[in-house]
Amino acid sequence: MRSYEVRAKTFGRRWRGLDPDEVYAYLRQLADELDRVRHEESLARTEAERIRQGLRQWHSRHARCFFVEPDRSSPARTPNHGAW
Asked: Chief localization class (predicted)?
């Protein structure tokens, strides 16, 4: 349901029944809330797309980067300090 649909809704007037002013005030409040929620949804979708794009770029830059496990069978190399 869209906010404009809520705003356009009308009710019949009865001698006994709901107060039309209260009904329309509630519908306006509901429509405003729908607008707010849809706006927040749009912001969230935009942010999610920005994050997806960033991840794609990161993946493209690092697709050929591989972690090489150190060879544990050979003795660990230690720097030769002070020897020329």
From this structure: cytoplasm
